[in-house]
Amino acid sequence: MESAIPPHLQCPRLRHRRVPDDYVPPYPATVARYRSEVTRVAMAYFGIQHRADALAPALAARALHCIAEAFAAATGPGHWDRARCVDAAGYLTTVSIGYWDDPAAYATWFAEHGARWASGAFNDPALGLFTEVLQPAVDRFETLFSADVVEGVAGVSSGLGQPIQEHAYWGGMRDRLALSQTDGMAPEGAPQVVTEGLHQRVLPHGNLCLIRSGQDWTGTQGNERRMYTEEVEPVLRAGMDFLQAQGRQVDCYANRYMAVVDAQGQPVDKSFGMGWWRSLAALERWAESHPTHVAIFGAAMKYLGTMGPAAQLKLYHEVTVARAEEQYFEYFNCHPRTGMLGAVTGA
Amino acid sequence: MESAIPPHLQCPRLRHRRVPDDYVPPYPATVARYRSEVTRVAMAYFGIQHRADALAPALAARALHCIAEAFAAATGPGHWDRARCVDAAGYLTTVSIGYWDDPAAYATWFAEHGARWASGAFNDPALGLFTEVLQPAVDRFETLFSADVVEGVAGVSSGLGQPIQEHAYWGGMRDRLALSQTDGMAPEGAPQVVTEGLHQRVLPHGNLCLIRSGQDWTGTQGNERRMYTEEVEPVLRAGMDFLQAQGRQVDCYANRYMAVVDAQGQPVDKSFGMGWWRSLAALERWAESHPTHVAIFGAAMKYLGTMGPAAQLKLYHEVTVARAEEQYFEYFNCHPRTGMLGAVTGA
Questions:
Q1: How many helices and strands (H and E) does chain B possess?
Q2: pLDDT per residue over A333-344, tens digit each?
Q3: Which residue of A has its CA nearest to B302?
Q4: Residues of A with Cβ-Cβ distance to B16 under 8 angstroms
Q5: Quick one: signal sequence residues (chains A, B) (predicted)?
């Protein structure tokens, strides 16, 4: 067992972990490990939204093809995937998510390929496009994996590590962030929107928080699959729906409950929630005490308790607390409840 | 809203609270407040155990009468109550619990009346007697009340205070303890037993933890009463049974799920769990992640969510983390799984 915080990011503490040094988690979990040369990653969400009407899907398909081609460039992401959902306003939303472990490569790629995405290159009244990017320093994001599966930002890691100590208790998320050794990561300021015609930027605030929290049930069969589908997923969906519809009550700016799709756009048996939160503390409070997440936690506990070590459901998450200058939000022809726009309009 | 830690116990922090300064709990709760002259309290559990066979109940009744008379002395407790349970070995156990806000008064009273309880004064083969006492400094215990009801150590307070900030999140218990400002309260050492004939003392260890956590459903009626009795209580009982039977797995040395009784020995609609734990951290981990308590929490959340502010169920708890020298454990003719004896025998 090792600390989630790698040795090269450990420092004299100004703040304590929530568990004592002899804490032993009741079951194993691991985190993604990065080469010590990696100082910063990029997580770039390129979204497209449209109604499911006549022409829009074909136009969107062209845009999706373009971004996939751009991802294949030499400076493209080390890992990417794609997922979709229907958002709170009823728009089909598809997000192509690229991950880089090299900010210089990302900057080069973005200048050449990414900047055009939400800047009018796909200007059609039926399409909305958005770019949501975080470029956190390595002390500002953490991961967690229940099984040997690589998803999300772990796709640009050097792989999963040994079982870690800081999990299976409330507060583990914070304790896995290297920055928590010295900083409470309180939010600073409030988001603002700058509108110029169809183009909008959201000016971010310090210590905004992003979570991507996913599940992979491709390996489940029979009773396990039934139990996930019938007993866990509906409770998860209800929680995700709450965050989408009423998340502002709990300082969740925006939430998307997304189905991962393959290269042909077909759903695979994977999903994730991605949520923008005012602060890590707000995410902590919802997770540990809101009835919707208490229900999710209870359903997952029951499921995992029933299945035991034979469970084939794979769980993972990644959480980032970003400085303002590590954030970039751009929206083109999007409805006012899209992503971080909703944080400002309060729509 | 005010801090659970009264101003006269606030000090420069070496350790942070788990919530940010702008945290607002989703519902109100209060704590017992004490005169600033109170530096230490005493919580003294005088227990008697016996089988429910022929003569024992009458003998026990005599002992219970004696301790009640002793409690009425001028130096007696400022508040006391009585409760009973059937323990893990099947013994009917009745505990008379006295609370003092003045250690000198307690010392005087104990020398005159209390010391004899578990020292052979009620020597009968059918009876076991025990004395379990904590005398924590005021920075080493905390309370929590959901409603304007005074129970337990609050009986020697000057009353409940204003709504407090440090509750409704995991870690609130620790954050309400004044000592948490500067100390992690890690356990030190291990308990030992000293046996001399029928008489046994348990030599305690540093930072042992006691919780008394209670519920009062006297005010409930109709559907609320049914919901408490049928949906909450069985889940609570299952968790208490787990701690009694298998608590050692989670570093709970002993647990009693007790029914409060009146002066005539009749149960009233109040109960509490009292548990001895190796550490505050062990109690935290069980409460926030063990399936038995996750189920209790879920049932309570559902109940309170259904009832809303009209709920008449009253909840309270008191938690102490005691130095070794603030603890006193004495057992006379008790079976080896009684209270802290079980911590040593591992029975």
A1: 8, 14
A2: 999 999 999 988
A3: A291
A4: 15-16, 184
A5: none
